[in-house]
Amino acid sequence: MPSLPELGIYFSLLLFIIGLFGVMLRKNLIFMMLSVEIMLNAANLAFISASSMTHTMDGQVIMFFVMAVAACEAGVGLALIISLYRAKSSVEIDDLRILRG
Amino acid sequence: MITQISFLIMGVLAVFLSVLMITRKWPVTAAMILIIVMMLLAGMYGLLGAHFSAVSQIIVYAGAIMVVFVFVIMLLNLPPAELRYGRLTISELVLISLGFIMALFLGTKVGQGYLIANLSSNTLVNARPPYYPDAMNENVKNVSALMFTDYLWAFELISFLILVAIIGAIVIAKKAKVSDAKSS
């Protein structure tokens, strides 16, 4: 049986791929942002696993920074979704083609 | 052995629930499922010895970020999303498989040896306080000591980033025209 940090790396790989498929397959902005949260969490799990693997604390500090960046991302992204919904009354990306070339 | 089994159960549940999440129709259901995934991940962090990260995962992610998500979904009163899936291109599939191979490399013994050789042989790393998976007090103390010495500059920059994000969110989400607000 693989060690605990090694299992953590494998699970973070699976979670990251699920989040990536969620971003690329769904056409709804809310679902895309939730999938980005899954990807950030997978990266955090990989950081914690590497931190536990190398017996250093750096991974945990970086995980704290990633969490702060995710909070900023959620705030600004949800504000953007609210203003887009006010303009177009939809959060489907097929309806939001204002910036097309 | 019991820690490994509970870690496996939590991980499999987290993966299963996140697959369930990206295939839901209702956004509120997906957000609620994601809260459970966050809590399972917090348990995994605790088993890995990162107690500070486990607690802040529950407080910040499940308690703050997801509440904002649920609040916005309920504010917009969104209809169920149709499950119209897009299509993946060849280049996207190639990128995904490359990432898969890289992460698999990091998970194997070779990758572990690479990580340990490149991180632990550094004298700066060895000069730091050691890692104690069993002592909770030591974990918080060591993380905060590292955060306020080596990563102090990054910590201050993060606080500035949060300030900018707050101002940006207010500017983006407020009413676009001042005349509408006056007339109403």
UniProtKB/TrEMBL annotation, chain A:
<dbReference type="GO" id="GO:0050136">
    <property type="term" value="F:NADH dehydrogenase (quinone) (non-electrogenic) activity"/>
</dbReference>
<feature type="transmembrane region" description="Helical">
    <location>
        <begin position="7"/>
        <end position="24"/>
    </location>
</feature>
<dbReference type="GO" id="GO:0048038">
    <property type="term" value="F:quinone binding"/>
</dbReference>
<keyword id="KW-0812">Transmembrane</keyword>
<keyword id="KW-1003">Cell membrane</keyword>
<keyword id="KW-0830">Ubiquinone</keyword>
<keyword id="KW-1278">Translocase</keyword>
<feature type="transmembrane region" description="Helical">
    <location>
        <begin position="62"/>
        <end position="85"/>
    </location>
</feature>
<dbReference type="GO" id="GO:0042773">
    <property type="term" value="P:ATP synthesis coupled electron transport"/>
</dbReference>
<keyword id="KW-0813">Transport</keyword>
<dbReference type="Pfam" id="PF00420">
    <property type="entry name" value="Oxidored_q2"/>
</dbReference>
<keyword id="KW-0874">Quinone</keyword>
<comment type="subunit">
    <text>NDH-1 is composed of 14 different subunits. Subunits NuoA, H, J, K, L, M, N constitute the membrane sector of the complex.</text>
</comment>
<keyword id="KW-0472">Membrane</keyword>
<dbReference type="GO" id="GO:0005886">
    <property type="term" value="C:plasma membrane"/>
</dbReference>
<comment type="function">
    <text>NDH-1 shuttles electrons from NADH, via FMN and iron-sulfur (Fe-S) centers, to quinones in the respiratory chain. The immediate electron acceptor for the enzyme in this species is believed to be ubiquinone. Couples the redox reaction to proton translocation (for every two electrons transferred, four hydrogen ions are translocated across the cytoplasmic membrane), and thus conserves the redox energy in a proton gradient.</text>
</comment>
<dbReference type="InterPro" id="IPR039428">
    <property type="entry name" value="NUOK/Mnh_C1-like"/>
</dbReference>
<protein>
    <recommendedName>
        <fullName>NADH-quinone oxidoreductase subunit K</fullName>
        <ecNumber>7.1.1.-</ecNumber>
    </recommendedName>
</protein>
<feature type="transmembrane region" description="Helical">
    <location>
        <begin position="30"/>
        <end position="50"/>
    </location>
</feature>
<comment type="similarity">
    <text>Belongs to the complex I subunit 4L family.</text>
</comment>
<dbReference type="GO" id="GO:0030964">
    <property type="term" value="C:NADH dehydrogenase complex"/>
</dbReference>
<keyword id="KW-0520">NAD</keyword>
UniProtKB/TrEMBL annotation, chain B:
<feature type="transmembrane region" description="Helical">
    <location>
        <begin position="6"/>
        <end position="23"/>
    </location>
</feature>
<feature type="transmembrane region" description="Helical">
    <location>
        <begin position="151"/>
        <end position="173"/>
    </location>
</feature>
<keyword id="KW-0472">Membrane</keyword>
<protein>
    <recommendedName>
        <fullName>NADH-quinone oxidoreductase subunit J</fullName>
        <ecNumber>7.1.1.-</ecNumber>
    </recommendedName>
</protein>
<dbReference type="GO" id="GO:0008137">
    <property type="term" value="F:NADH dehydrogenase (ubiquinone) activity"/>
</dbReference>
<feature type="transmembrane region" description="Helical">
    <location>
        <begin position="30"/>
        <end position="52"/>
    </location>
</feature>
<keyword id="KW-0874">Quinone</keyword>
<feature type="transmembrane region" description="Helical">
    <location>
        <begin position="88"/>
        <end position="106"/>
    </location>
</feature>
<feature type="transmembrane region" description="Helical">
    <location>
        <begin position="58"/>
        <end position="76"/>
    </location>
</feature>
<dbReference type="Pfam" id="PF00499">
    <property type="entry name" value="Oxidored_q3"/>
</dbReference>
<keyword id="KW-1003">Cell membrane</keyword>
<dbReference type="InterPro" id="IPR001457">
    <property type="entry name" value="NADH_UbQ/plastoQ_OxRdtase_su6"/>
</dbReference>
<keyword id="KW-0520">NAD</keyword>
<dbReference type="InterPro" id="IPR042106">
    <property type="entry name" value="Nuo/plastoQ_OxRdtase_6_NuoJ"/>
</dbReference>
<dbReference type="GO" id="GO:0048038">
    <property type="term" value="F:quinone binding"/>
</dbReference>
<dbReference type="GO" id="GO:0005886">
    <property type="term" value="C:plasma membrane"/>
</dbReference>
<comment type="function">
    <text>NDH-1 shuttles electrons from NADH, via FMN and iron-sulfur (Fe-S) centers, to quinones in the respiratory chain. Couples the redox reaction to proton translocation (for every two electrons transferred, four hydrogen ions are translocated across the cytoplasmic membrane), and thus conserves the redox energy in a proton gradient.</text>
</comment>
<keyword id="KW-0812">Transmembrane</keyword>
<comment type="similarity">
    <text>Belongs to the complex I subunit 6 family.</text>
</comment>
<keyword id="KW-1133">Transmembrane helix</keyword>
